[in-house]
Specification:
Layout: E1 28-32, H1 36-50, E2 54-61, E3 64-71
Antiparallel strand pairs: 1-3, 2-3
Length: 73
């Protein structure tokens, strides 16, 4: 596994890079994962550090389980 950077995600042990600079208010990301609780915990930590409010929903998209996150503020 590659080295995780501060704002990388790895809820299932596989590194997921997110371009947080493009995460404007109203934007969303889908994190495909089995461990949805860990994904929510990791994204919440990152967004809290950035001072952002988010909304999340457990979803199945394209036959993949995961969590979709929307930046609210």
């Amino acid at each position: 596994m590659k080295i995780l950077k501060t704002y990388d995600l790895a809820p299932d042990g596989v590194r997921i890079e997110v371009n947080w600079d493009n995460m404007n208010i109203g934007a969303s990301i889908f994190v495909p994962c089995i461990n949805t609780e860990e994904a929510t915990k990791e994204v919440t930590r990152i967004c809290t550090e950035k001072g952002w409010e988010i909304e999340s929903r457990l979803r199945i998209e394209g036959e993949c389980l995961g969590v979709r996150f929307w930046r609210k503020m």
